[in-house]
Amino acid sequence: MDKLIINGGKPLFGSIEINGAKNAAVAILPAAILASKGNCIIDNIPNIEDVHCIERILKSLGCSIKTNKNCATIDSTTITSLSANTDDVRKMRASYYLIGALLGRFKKAKVELPGGCPIGVRPIDQHIKGFEALGAKVKIMHGSVLVEADELIGTNIFFDVVSVGATINVMLAATLAKGVTTLENVAKEPHVVDVANFLNSMGANIKGAGTDVIRIVGVENLTGCSYSVIPDQIEAGTYMIASAACGGEVTIQNVIPKHLESISAKLVEMGSEIIEDGDSLTVKSNGRLKGVNIKTQPYPGFPTDVQQPMSTLLTVAKGRSIINESIWESRFKHVDELKKMGANIKVEGRTAIIDGVDKLTGAVVKATDLRAGAAMVIAGLIAEGTTEVLSIEHIDRGYPNIEDKFKAVGADIVRVYE
Ligand code: EPU
Predict the structure, then answer these.
(1) How far apart are CA 211 and CA 60, in angstroms?
(2) CB 46 near ligand 1, within 6 Å
(3) What are the angstrom distances between the C-alpha of 284 and each of 31, 275, 390?
(4) Residue 125 phi/psi, 5° resolution?
(5) Quick one: what percent of the chain has pLDDT higher than 70?
(6) pLDDT at 116 over 80
């Protein structure tokens, strides 16, 4: 397995280009299944393992996919199978979007239950509630979700919890339903809006994405379109936090600063300077930052997906910081790794209490999941001495060329291929 070797303690200067959003791309690619005519040409797709996984799954269903750099052309008129049951399906979370997309277009699907990062219990009851409300029969048998409907009919659905996955999945199924579907208490994340925009470019009639209520007027069919995925809010947030942690001055390019407001606000509260300029922002930090409290929340609150990178920064901030992780109950698995480097953190249930130390010291640590991996890379960048980050296949699932991006701003980081 590859590993990253980092010699820490260097300030970062320069600029980092952000790629397309993972959690938008892994929904938009399966959403292309809904097009019964024409090709979907999707640009700004990040070169990450989760995207490769979804592309392999789509091919296994019979889709034709041609890729050129960050652009994929998908022809889903050639689909021959409604059953997704490869290792890739079991390995990743976003494979659940195949259920909504196949159900929407073919009124039938069999998809193995999804995998994903071990960050807590990850039920799909709200997805199922939505499919059933639209008229589908849903069964879970032998590890697969089986859905089938004679027809899908629009209705009102009020979600019991705010769920990114359920919002997008039910939206996929409802675009071709008869009549009007109203989804209430929905997720407002930028990637929910991006998927709705993509579907509208294919001919769907979806309004309200980005608010609490999404209204979908069913259409007869969808056709291919050209679309560009939004920049990755979480990748950008990770590099912003790394820049604040290392000190220096880094411009994060190709971002939508509005999507990053909760992260910018926290970094400013800690003592960093953030300068927004069109589609880029610059993070300036000089000296030790001060500790803050954080509660993760659905958008526009502080995103759970940068909680782990942020916790690394807080290990060396002045004073006490308290993190309340309200989305995923097991998203503190990286804490034991940070402790190996000298961090002073106590976890009680969903709360982590961090007392800032003067410095971290290099150690051999592992990426326990995707964002934990980013947290350990940041830890290596700020630590005294050498850090080896193992199990970096987790990082490759969501961060394109992480070592190259850090190297370009002055970090001493190399990938060792084993
Ligand atoms: N939930 C339910 N029932 C459901 C669905 C969700 O109770 O049917 C609960 C979950 O247990 C959780 C909360 O609702 O407590 C939010 O879960 P959500 O459905 O929003 O999460 P997800 O769709 O499974 C996506 C991202 C995650 C990100 C969360 C929250 C993708 C592929 N994954 O997961 O991303 O943490 O939204 O923003 O979009 C990551 O990128 O590192 C990552 C884990």
Answers:
(1) 35
(2) no
(3) 39, 8, 30
(4) -60, -35
(5) 100
(6) no
Q: Is the CB of 166 under 6 A from ligand 1?
A: yes
Q: Is the CB of 126 under 6 A from ligand 1?
A: yes
β-sheet bridge partners, residue 232? none
CB atoms within 10 A of CB 55: 19
Segment 154-198, tens digit of pLDDT:
999 999 999 999 999 999 999 999 999 999 999 999 999 999 999
pLDDT at residue 221, rounded to an integer: 97
**Beta pairing partners, 161:** none
Tokens, residue 189: 């994340």
Cα 199 off chain centre by = 19
Q: Do residues 184 and 176 touch, judged by C-beta distance below 8 A? A: no
Binding site as annotated, residues: 22-23, 93, 122-126, 305, 327
- Three-state secondary-structure class, residue 92: coil
Binding site for UDP-N-acetyl-alpha-D-glucosamine: which residues? 93, 122-126, 305, 327
Least Cα distance to 236 among 414, 415, 4, 405 occurs for: 405
Distance, CA of 157 to CA of 134 (rounded, Å): 9
